[in-house]
């Protein structure tokens, strides 16, 4: 509450200054004070990201933030139910959702359709990333029930100077992982690990067989576990091909995978010095928009830094759908709760955080991903951001329903994966043998975890019913005594 009063005091001070400066003018009719309850993760971060700017423009709207932090305390076994219960209890006017919550709430009629409000106010959505709007409408059955101020996405960064020096054609939009890794092999693979160049690599540490195969699989929509059937699905031709593609790429020695695992600690300058792409020794990497901030910081942190020409291409793309990307996702979708008593205030908030004015202010930073409003941040540190908008977000959500998988399962599953893939890397096992072993051993653990989770739910339900019965019994006794 103290945090909120700080913001109200700031707004009051600014309002008094504005009133004093305009006292000679005609009297203005006082605006009606409105209330607005917004559902968000952390109250402080909400004001830093959205609230302060909104309150400056709309001082007549009192905001109450209902924090969702309690939903992620590790005690929840059914996140869908916990989320729905939270909304039902708190009754926020504006609901913050992810893809799963959004699709569920639209299908259950818990969100207000925005098309009518957009038409009424002639609110322009022309400069909002079309692919994003298309995806939101698809999840809403053809209608718009939510908007997202920003999104996250990966692109292919490349060192244009290295490509020119070695006569290699630069990456193009819509490149697949196979094309990226084949291009990486066209660069020299000899020399000392600390000074040579690499065709491809990751920014953080080495590119292992496990993480490279996982990235390829994610782009192609492959799941290691099917949360609807609770079956592990690794022993398939698609997964085998994915691991063999990654295995062949690493065997070519064109991929950055240092023996010591990469940076082990030290100063920021030492960290930057340990990153081959930042130091001009790597042809390509795949990363998000934050990478540009890292690159900018490296330039200012390293003495005698040698800059190079950066290029960006849209991708990686799924070969089965080359104009879409599964590496584009929405961190936050805002919607208005159906039957909200404060629709006007909620819609003002929605218009503002998804509008041109907000986007212009936020275009100076990259703190919250890529802006959904196109044209507001055309470049960052001289590098064009157009590539982030060239592929459409895939309507298929690779991570859909993954929260159904018991958390306890992963602590036992990952060591099995690391052990088996380690055997492949040491040439003690084939990819086919390792994936079969992971599927067989992992399924035993998953079946057990699912059974234990179901037992816990039954136990919690019985305990809750018992508490309710005890409460009813005590009321009955008291009533009889009173009579």
Automatic annotation (TrEMBL):
The keyword Chaperone does not apply. The keyword Signal applies. Keywords: Signal, Transport. Residues 451-460 have a biased composition (Basic and acidic residues). Residues 473-483 have a biased composition (Polar residues). PROSITE patterns: PROKAR_LIPOPROTEIN. InterPro entries: Bact_solute-bd_prot1, SBP. Residues 451-483 are annotated as: Disordered. Belongs to the bacterial solute-binding protein 1 family. This is ABC transporter substrate-binding protein. The lineage of its organism: Bacteria, Bacillati, Bacillota, Bacilli, Bacillales.
